[in-house]
Amino acid sequence: MLIKARPSKPLQRGWADLTGRVGRLNLVSGILPRGAPMTFRIAVVQPIAHAPEGAEANVADAVNFIERAADEGADFVCFPETYPGPWRMPATFDPTPALAEAAVKHGVHAVFGTIEALDPAAATAHNLIVMAYPDGRAPARYRRTHPNGPWIYTGGPWWEFQYVAADAFPVFDTRHGKVGLAMCSEVYVPEVSRALALRGAELIFMPAGTDKRRLWATWRNLIWARAIENLAIVVTTQNLLSHSERGLAMVAAPEEILFESTVAGLTVVDVSLERVRAMRAGRDGVGASSEFGAKQGVLGPQWQRPELYDTFYPRPLREAAE
């Protein structure tokens, strides 16, 4: 079991399953105390999920998590990819109304996963990460863009639908900062997070699916890498189908990993965007490494050369990721 963070005062360690206690972590490295400018709370949920055939039961569990996270003062609640579901076509339920209602009732942003049916006869669907707002506006939606489809969402034990890739990288304003949404193994495609960061995303939610097995170590490294290279806060979590599986829940900042855990439950992390914004606005220079743990200004004109972007990739013929 791993639960790790750098504390600014003694930690109240503790994860919550549906009957347990909620943990809270107060973190440093430019992270200010609660109540300071740009400080807010993220509840990271790494649930024991119901299997696909019973996935509709996840909806009530998710609503319960939202309520308890809000009781701990959370501003955002992050669930895994495809949680609450459904995992399969035909889609037999839509979790969005229930989670959007809970987000309004409890005054939080709820980030969750589902699918968007396109052609029921062909079993085609977009894979979605959705963010419901506390003010009741229409939920934000990101439709997975990478890799090309079809892909591993068919033929395995969990997902069963014909995945269709989308082609947009929207970012979303909140009162805490600009949010980008992505998912799962898109962490292996740095262009996805960079596209969001170049559009202003400061907080990137990248929830994932299931046990990563031999990919765990590289996946963990890449979550932090996406935070470093984009000067962003990156949040991930995943579904666990049993307590024997190893999870990967993280909150990563450019200069350090603020929180990580491999076990099931919910925890609330205090974070701030002040350091992120200062590093984005700054310029790298002599002696900067004595003050900053990541390069300043990498999204700005000191580092970026957009006139070269078309030469980066030779643009071969598109191939499906089968």
Q: What percentage of amino acids are in beta strands?
A: 15-25%
Task: Supply the CATH superfamily name.
Answer: Carbon-nitrogen hydrolase
Give the end-to-end Cα distance, rounded to a whole number of Å: 34 Å
- Label the CATH architecture: 4-Layer Sandwich
Q: How many individual β-strands?
A: 15
Which key phrases capture this entry?
6 helices, 322 residues, seven-stranded mixed β-sheet, alpha/beta, Nitrilase/N-carbamoyl-D-aminoacid amidohydrolase, globular, eight-stranded mixed β-sheet, 15 strands
Provide structural commentary.
By secondary structure, the protein is of the alpha/beta class. The protein is built from six helices and 15 strands. Helix 1 (57-71) runs parallel beside helix 2. The longest helix has 15 residues, at 57-71.
How are the secondary structure elements laid out?
Blueprint: E1 3-5, E2 23-26, E3 39-46, H1 57-71, E4 76-78, H2 96-106, E5 109-119, E6 124-132, E7 140-143, E8 162-163, E9 171-173, E10 178-181, H3 190-198, E11 203-205, H4 216-230, E12 233-236, E13 249-252, E14 257-261, E15 265-272, H5 274-281, H6 309-312
Parallel strand pairs: 2-15, 3-4, 4-5, 6-8, 10-11, 11-12
Antiparallel strand pairs: 1-14, 3-15, 5-6, 6-7, 9-10, 12-13, 13-14
